[in-house]
Fold these 4 entries.
Entry 1:
Amino acid sequence: MNFFKIVKQDFINILHNPALIISNTMIPLILIGVLGFVTKSNFGTMPISAYDYQGVNMLILSVALLVAITTSNAFMEEKVMRGNMRIAYAPVSKLEMVLSKIVSSYVFVSICYGLLVPFCQYILGLNLGGSNFLWFTLLLNIFAFFGCCFGAMFCCIFRSEEQANSIMQIPLFIFIFLGGVLFRIHRLGNVVNMISNISPVKWVAGCSYQIIYDNDRHLLLPVITGLAALSLLCFLVCGLLFKPEEYV
Amino acid sequence: MKTLLINKFDRIMQKKAIIALALIIMPLMIVFAIFFSGHSAAKELIGYLGTDIDDLPICEQFTVAPITEMPKLSQMAEGIYAAVVSKDGSGNYIVTSLKSDTDIKAIETLFATGQLPGDYKGDDAKRKERGIGTNILGFITMMIIIQGVALTTMYPEDRSSGAFRRIMSSAANIGSYLSAQLIFTFISLYVPTYLAIVLAKFCLDAELGYSLGMLAVLLLIITLFATAFAIFISTVLERNINLVTSGISIITCILSGCFLSISSDNKVLTATSNALPQKAYMDIVHGIEFGGHFSDYRGQLIYLLVLSLIFIIISVSLVKTRTAKGIY
């Protein structure tokens, strides 16, 4: 019961933060618009237009970049820290505390991207898989869960919001670069291609292309399993390193 | 002011994460960027579906290779194949590609006549035309703007911890505090970035597009701007400073052509893009790489400097009114 109360409170805290709401709803749309526009001359109109292509890529990029930051804000933002201290004194286990931050931000981003994908597909008319868009949404959703765990892990390692946020962006940018969602990296040679397989963004992007363009879902299960395993790993690191008493 | 400045450097030593970011990761990413800008990627691949031609066309911009089955659409989206060409019953070439009609026509011509149209430029050729130096500085521009705000982190921290109010009530005043912060941000942005570039130049023997002296001047301009912007944004915003800056800088940098040049007929977009300071900077950088001189870009230089000055003036006056009202 306590757990749900904390989750609810954390969730309300996120809703009170306009920057988080704007960045998880407006920023992906602006990115799709801007990049679609910029790369328009590199694409034809059929079967994939620049907007379709950037729609898939920018949604993946936004999940990769913004979800982790959302969690670290929900976890350690200055206004939340005081509340965290009080929870630390209450009879709540420390894992519940971490989990509540992950769950509350996960619920928040699930709602955001759960609405964004159908919005792009049906109202903006982008090709995000037609009737397959639910599978793409599911994939993004699991990826968002990994993002939440990843953000929480960095908070537990660095113990301060701004440090976690600024350091976290480096591995995220490397994942995004290797994932090929900002620009295609396939032609940079075999070595880069081999290294790029370590990037979860690459897995998600490859799987999404297959779902959306080939109507082929055989990669979905392995990718989801991989992401779940990584999430668990991040959560274990949180459990090992999180010490609420160090915030005093 | 000297004490305040020394204090900043002393305190940053305590923040290992930020030190690592400024001194190791940021230079590494710059070296990385320089390496990949000079690194020639493999040419784009065109697959020919069929076995009837032995002497596939050879050209400078594409590699043509025979394939046995139609690649999937997802492979084309990933960029493994730029285009697939096949022959229909009457001997015409059919090009399947995600590229624009101009590119498709050019590839048709390549197969029909054995060479690309003379004035045709593919994506790679266009990138090369932009200049290596422009590509490198475009990336550095975005990094410096984001990093500048990260390095100014002590200023909002002072405000929330109450140290700022105590400094204000001491002999130090707003001017000296903000100048100390400005100098600190400027030095810790400029020095590691420039050293990284010099390092890349000598260790990787990378082509930079400019002489080292010219780069020092060009870097000076953008660092000045980024410092002023960092102070401004850290003054205006109370929370979520990192998040907001990342969002703003990524979007404005794309719009101002830091990564790809933008040409469009859309008036609103062109006007927006022209108003962005990064665009003015990219104009200077591009012009100078191709033999221009600073005197040709007086307008852009003045724009950048005035904008930086306005950022600083707004910050100072905001801090003044807020301190007077006792908000801090």
Entry 2:
Amino acid sequence: MPIEHEIAEQRSYLMRYARLQLRNEAWAEDAVSDTLLAALAKPQAFGNRSQLKTWLVGILKHKVIDLLRLHARDALPAGLASPNNDEDPDASLCADNGHFLHPPSDWGNPEQSLHTQQFLLVLEACTDRLPPVMGRVFLMREWLELSCEDICKELNLSSTNLYVQLHRARQRLRECLDLNWFGTQTRTPT
Amino acid sequence: MMLRRTCKEASALILAREDRALSLPDRTALRLHLWMCGACPRFEHQVLTMRAALRQWRHQMHEDASDNP
């Protein structure tokens, strides 16, 4: 198959991650178009076809960062300026005295299940369920693998603010996985 | 007590550790809390499991299309 076709075939795959990270259909379209064009412009830069995805995802990450930089103001609405803009994220987790309302469940030894496609789809769905701003900063950290310093710089965000967002995102992801994966596995039916 | 942490504080430190280095007093207090608490080690295990899961998730997206329909 010509390389152009192979590249074009990855479009929907790339869109999936662009959407997840950018939370904006138009930006995702732009990022993926830019990626495909960049790839087509220098197919010779790509030698081993078995690593087509790695190569394209690598380009996509750069394009996504460009898009985030370009739309930083919209990616991070002004409402986020104050970290205490809504309720205590741990209110459902802990009582006023600092103890757990419900002790965390035992997730067991899930090493094997982490490799299954089924689990990874649940993880992705839980990530997708994060509110847009929270999801963006969380994936900048976990997908783009940017340092906190770089995220703050790109989005013009204070580190306190970033830590609050990341804390909430991780807490939500934990609850979602507990509810939709681990909880159902470890809780014995009554 | 300087080194006493509630479960709420300890779980916040466990989450924060994913994104920043903890101060020495925080690290010490967290270790002490984990040693004597029944619930927080399970919370820590959950967070470490998420760390491994996200690493696996990043890894699988680079695999060949035939593995990921």
Entry 3:
Amino acid sequence: MKTSPAPPSGGSRAMRFFALVRKETLQVMRDPSSIMIAFVLPVILLFIFGYGVSLDAYSTRISLVDENPTQLSKDLAASFIHSRYFAVTLGSDRRPFEDALIAGRTRGVVVIPATFTADFAAAGNPSVQVIVDGADTNTANFVQNYAAGVVNTWAAGRRAELGGAAPTIDVQQRVWFNAALASRNFLVPGSIAIVMTLIGTMLTSLVVAREWERGTMEAIMATPVTAIELLASKVLPYFILGMTSATLCLALAVWLFGVPFHGSVGAFYLLAASFLVPALGQGLLISAATKNQFLASQAALISAFLPSFLLSGFLFEIDSMPTAIQWLTLIVPARYLIPSLQSVFLAGDVWPLFLQDIAAMLAIGAVFFLGAARTTRKRIA
Amino acid sequence: MWGRLKALIVKELLAVLRDPKSRTIIIVPPLIQLLVFSYAATLEVKNVDLLALNHDSGHWSQELIERIEGAPTFRHVTIAESEAQVRRTIDMRQAIGAVVIGPTFSRDIASGAGADLQVILDGRRSNAAQIVGGYLDEIAQGVAQDAAASGARAPPQVTIAARNWFNPNLTYQWFLVPNLIALIALLIGLLVTALSVARERELGTFDQLMVSPLRVHEVLIGKVLPPILIGLFHITLYVLAAIFMFHVPLRGPLPMLYVAGLVYLAAVAGVGLFISSLSMTQQQAILGAFLFLVPATLLSGFATPIENMPTWLQPATAINPLRYFLVVVRGVFLRDMSIGEILSQTLPLVLIASVTLTAAAWLFRRRME
């Protein structure tokens, strides 16, 4: 609004504001899809991350070819069979397994060559071949590393038996915050950020875009409501919806999935609330800029949902990305929520980390809200 | 009938492509996705920071730290002064972990007795932590072996000859870009179809369609074909990018990719139309599409293999069209999968497509009456 009318008295202003909030809230409550996205989708997502998606690969299907079974090679094969990381199919010929590898029915083929036992006895250079399916690089890396682990552990055991004990370094691993290294424990807190992105940005951008599409936005603008009041009334119901959904997520994470919660509930809510500021701001900005539900959904998908998934450190390490993309992650709000959320669950209240992340989220939020306010004003000027 | 149908298809395509913003959003975001996400979505671990708390002043601890610093996995190895500093730095996530070297480390190695090394890892990043733990173990064993080599006895070492089929250097983009072909087709195909009926209903033009001379099945074909065409366009765009930009080897029969792709898109369009017929508004359609999209992506074998999912959940992936098409794109691009093998993956897609399209048609008819 370029020229605001004479400021109304405080009382009527508050009444006007609450009337708007009430209208928005009714709109949310009446549409089953908002409720679905706020309460059904979180349950599905947490369920999938709690049970379905696991980065801890147990029982990966591999094939083992023992070209010349001897006492020694059978002993090595047994190490593979007993490893909890592999589900082994045994054979003596590599060819059928190579076909299975092409068809994707097996992830890797471990070949103990015919000369293995002789080489080992002669202190030659015994070797084990590991063929992996490079078409799936994650699993390929995994199979390689763990196959090497199995062989090395086995070889060390044999050497000890042979009495040729070389100095070994016994690496004692201590994993802080998540001793069992369960991926569920960091995926479930991370998926809360995804849920809140969906509510904060996706849902908000759709609802407000619909008002623009239908022209009801202009109708409201023609009333004495100021742009700030209008935006605030749009945002408040979704803020409450987002916080309610966060509560549901927290309850499910702790009671259903047994994710440890070492921090304080206050810190959890503070982080969730801080994240909703940029998320809602982004939703408003998208709707004001696109004014069309299809465009808004695509824009929210590309600029909010996918980055929360892929550029936030949720599944993929930010440190491992190319430098240009690492810079890009700096403007993804979820990048600041996820580390703090993981900490509040697994490590406890690490306030220096939280404050730093909260400051970043609020700063990004301020930029989005300013952008949304400017775009809204410009549209009707 | 053909004239009517053609008019309807043109109208549906125009509904998506008429507006310049809409055109941009159909072309630009998929390209951004390809560029940004194909480099970002890696489970590899590189450039992580580590701490070293060294209580030892001998040669072997220096050697160990130098080797860790030299490994591509690690960016900086900061020498920590105290336990408290280790605690603080890991808490703040400024390092993924620490190696703690005891005061007798070098002496123990030199004496041949074997030494202890403590590794602390941040379990909040448990996936990366596991990989880092594995690398550190490997580096430590390397140091131990060299110490042994300088000594007298050399017991047999078992070497591991690793061969990576289809992707010798395990280039991550070779894996990811073909997968993205299947993902983008799902994303676009689903959203465009899901919106089609819902948009007409919201704008009130659905009633006009009902009073037009078009038969129900014609309307259905008219709704399903444009998203399939747009999906095929995206598949082509991504295939070209995969071949010419990312140099992913195309070893299998490309026409078969299109055969399977067509059936896959039909299955996706069926799901989209079903959601669209169920929805009263565009908002419901988009959110409904999400409700399908997210589980379908996560339970497809894309990021994590299906066999790692719990046994009771694995059957649920059998009705997921993405699961089968992923096998086909990976097969055609990297593996030189045989036509028979591709057809065996296409068959379930045919079944899924006939079920989703029939269900959509049934629901659509009910809504029209």
Entry 4:
Amino acid sequence: MDRAATADRIAALIEPFNKKGIAITDDTTFSGDLEFDSLTVMDFVAAIEDEFDIIISMNQQAEIETWGHLVDAVVKLQD
Amino acid sequence: MSDLFSKFDPVIQMREDLLASGVEDPFSLVMERVISPTVAVCNGRETILLGTYNYMGMTFDPDVIAAGKQALDLFGSGTTGSRVLNGTYAGHRDVEKALCEFYGMDHAMVFSTGYQANLGIISTMAGKGDYIVLDIDSHASIWDGCKMGDAEVVPFRHNDIEAMEKRLRRIPEGAGKLVVLEGVYSMLGDIAPLKEMIAVAKAHGAMVLVDEAHSMGFIGPNGRGVAEDQGVLDQVDFVIGTFSKSVGTVGGFCVSNHPKFEILRLVCRPYVFTASLPPSVVATAATSIRKLMHAGNKRAHLWENSRTLHKGLKDAGFKLGTEEPQSAIISVIMPDLERGAAMWEALLKEGLYVNLARPPATPANMTLLRCSLCAEHSAQQVQTIIGMFTRAGRATGII
């Protein structure tokens, strides 16, 4: 699946977690802009894992700070 | 001034805000005198202890104390050495033998603390390229063990069997897998559905570690913990436990039936690179563990206390961590940290000590007043405790 299609599918998943309706770009950060706490991260990651049938370990999550990082990581994990 | 301490500024601020409200500091209480497993003197006040994890009340057991004194006289105050060099005395071997007897297992390895037992076993067993699948509400020592070992760490929602299964299923073929669970989760005092979870873990070829720190001595037919109670202890590869709760001293351990277990003594760094427990500590632990094997009456009384307190607090209108009492921990949920701290102080002034637990140690950012019962609490004390909670709860507007 190409990057744009992957980004669209993740965008649908983030909606319930994006409570303030922040406009998302590749540079949007999860802890800063979206104010995700650890529980939100866990639920959001679980939703992505279920959608794509992948594992995003906490080690990999540590490298993911922005929306762009996340999309890239999910694209790579599907290979 | 900005330096390496700057990252702690939010915690410093939170603490200052809390103390500015005039509340007594909940995190620097001093026990001036300890009278028994259930009573101490704090700030000159005689205080009932309801937050010590001293579940079986072994700290003042005459046989335990006598064993410790004798070991001090015979072996001195400390070993000044690692278990693999000069730090293994007869007492260290004996307490490991006592653990094998207690759990009915082949091997036991004693660490200097419970924290180090999790740190050591998890980081040594699951290394680079292996996967650790663990409950999100796991204790700090488990998380730190994961971090130290360089394995891929995959958490799942608390006690969620399906979420655990999905993660195990997605792990790449051929990778080593360790599932880490706890028998009793200490924040809310709830137990894990180990029977179902361990069956799933084994179906996916994972090894299983269960931390039974908060169940030893009183859960299961022989007090071996939640895994024994649910009939799956023989499926557990590593049981982690501690001497600092039911056993009544300090130290940690791992018991196992794995034929290669003994090699861990040479490769587990938190076991090797620290001094072993003092002789008096291992002597008190061995005596206590052997007495816990025959403590049926105490066990029954502890459960009675747990049920009475749970019902009393629930009837008084408090919100509790579990619908039914599942362990010797009764967790009272506070609306927020400020009111939780006010309630904690009101209880202390009534003459009752409980643990104030706050984020990030707590699940879902809750503030909790955590009560841990002791087999030595009398039925009368439990009634007194319910009265204190009710008065303090009304005074602070919690109920």
